[in-house]
Design brief:
Helix content is 17%, strand content 33%. The chain is an alpha/beta fold. Strand 37 and strand 38 form a beta hairpin. Helix 1 packs across helix 3.
Length: 444
């Protein structure tokens, strides 16, 4: 079999987005639009993928492991393909897969069917059924054969009534497509070089052009404006939820559960409504997540409960409960069986197993030993106006309600602070302090 190389068209201005951000970088379920197309293409195992971009997109593309082709001026899809082919060394018998970059719902199967449909012909293209108000180019047939594609802005009323349209995915014989793209002209409503004109040119030259009618038109949606972006997001989210549900996760309401790709969620975990799970989060088995929660880059063990809370960039052990109304952030690490309750904020805090902070606290830059009990209203005063300082709280300590722990500070194992203490000096193991500033309590 000859090799298949792929070209993704991503340089378009995306004017209909009305945005300072290039269209390809708008996010859908947590990833840029172009990421999705490339992911499906990677599964096709194309020998090489070239993405046509505009000069201002170059910086944003450094994190993608693909070859980019700069299209200096966006003179149309045909011009983009020409730029891509000029940058590719010609290969005899080579096949080229061409895809619009603005169709994130596209699946590897669709790419396979375009390649499969090419056979020994010059070009195959994926088509779909559309309604009259669709902005997709229409397929004009002559009998059974495709004759040409007409873009909506150039179409007559009769042509607009045609129900078959061009999806923007093609497989082509490399030499034949090279031959026609150099001859495209911009005599059309948009003054652009249309790749779609290559179809008519190949047909007139007696070449074989094969349309492949796709059954699943949802996967072929092109994103041109923010209305289409929102619709596609909903469809993608539904797919992501369905996959986790099939793998044993209960999602009470997929419509209000916002997922991203590359997440793991264990079996028998239940996700309640209005919850988003983002950025490579990993959730264990039999957890309760939500309602009204946001997890981002969170690693959660088994049998945890995260209720009406936010957990970002943090790790949580087994059997730990967070919320309602808690905020865990900044590389916090919670061990097993920790309890974090109402209105507690943790930032870069390490809590050993069995720690309880059930109400109204800020614990920042803190290390807290096992079974410590942090009373309501406890604050680690970690910022002295210049630096962030650490607070170390020992095992089995009892921190009284409304204690202010002025860092840097160390409270030894088994120590106690009285309610309302302002602790400015280290407390030894087993020590008992109270007051403002806190002083040792007499041992009577
Ligand atoms: C295109 C097709 C149309 C098809 C539809 C499917 C053409 C002329 N029309 O229309 O038949 O039904 O897709 O979604 O091809 N691009 C470049 N450089 C350019 C212009 C565009 O790289 O100079 C890229 C865009 O970033 C985009 C893709 O090509 O990813 C398609 O361009 P777009 O302007 O969105 O074409 P449509 O009007 O949607
Ligand atoms: Ca488009």
């Amino acid at each position: 079999m000859s090799t298949v190389r792929a070209i993704v068209l991503a340089a378009g201005k995306g004017t209909r987005m009305k945005s300072a951000v290039p269209k390809m970088f708008h996010e859908l379920c947590g990833r840029p639009l172009i990421w999705w197309v490339l992911r499906s293409l990677h599964e096709v195992h194309a020998n090489e993928i070239g993405v046509v971009i505009s000069p201002e997109m170059e910086a944003g593309f450094r994190s993608f492991a693909v070859r980019v082709v700069i299209q200096e001026e966006q003179l149309g899809t045909g011009h983009a393909v020409r730029a891509a082919l000029e940058s590719l060394e010609p290969r005899p018998n080579g096949r080229i897969l061409i895809a619009n970059g603005d169709m994130p719902l596209v699946t590897p199967e669709i790419f396979h069917s375009a390649i499969g449909g090419l056979g020994g012909g010059a070009l195959s293209l994926i088509t779909l059924r559309v309604g009259r108000d669709s902005n997709f180019g229409r397929i004009v047939r002559h009998g059974d054969r495709v004759e040409r594609i007409v873009e909506v802005r150039d179409a007559t009323q009769e042509e607009l009534a045609l129900e078959e349209a061009n999806a923007g995915i093609y497989a082509a014989d490399e030499a034949k497509v090279r031959g026609v793209v150099t001859r495209l002209r911009n005599e059309n409503a948009q003054r652009e070089l249309y790749l779609t004109d290559a179809v008519g040119m190949l047909v007139s030259a007696g070449e074989i052009v094969t349309p492949i009618l796709a059954r699943d038109s949802v996967s072929l949606a092109g994103i041109n404006d923010r209305v289409e972006l929102a619709r596609a997001r909903a469809a993608m989210n539904e797919r992501l939820c369905a996959q986790h549900m099939r793998d044993g996760v209960t999602i009470v309401d997929p419509a209000t559960t916002y997922l991203e790709p590359e997440l793991t969620i264990g079996r028998d975990t239940i996700v309640y409504p209005n919850t988003s799970i983002a950025r490579l989060s990993q959730i264990g088995e039999a957890c309760t997540i939500g309602p009204n929660s946001r997890l981002s880059n969170a690693v959660i063990g088994n049998r945890c409960e995260i209720r009406e809370s936010v957990v970002c960039d943090s790790r949580i052990g087994d059997g730990t409960n967070v919320g309602p109304f808690a905020h865990v952030r900044g590389e916090s690490v919670l061990a097993n069986d920790v309890r974090i309750g109402n209105f507690v904020e943790l930032k870069n805090a390490r809590l050993a197993s069995g720690v309880k902070a059930s109400h109204l606290s800020y614990l920042g830059d803190a290390e807290i030993g096992e079974e410590a009990n942090i009373g309501a209203g406890t604050i680690t005063c970690n910022f002295d106006g210049k630096r962030k300082n650490r607070t170390k709280i020992g095992k089995r300590t009892f921190i009284g309600s409304n204690s202010s722990l002025v860092a840097p500070l160390e409270v030894g194992d088994g120590a106690l602070t009285g309610a309302g203490s302002v602790v400015t000096k280290d407390v030894p193991a087993g020590g008992r302090v109270a007051g403002n500033p806190a002083r040792p309590l007499s041992s009577k």
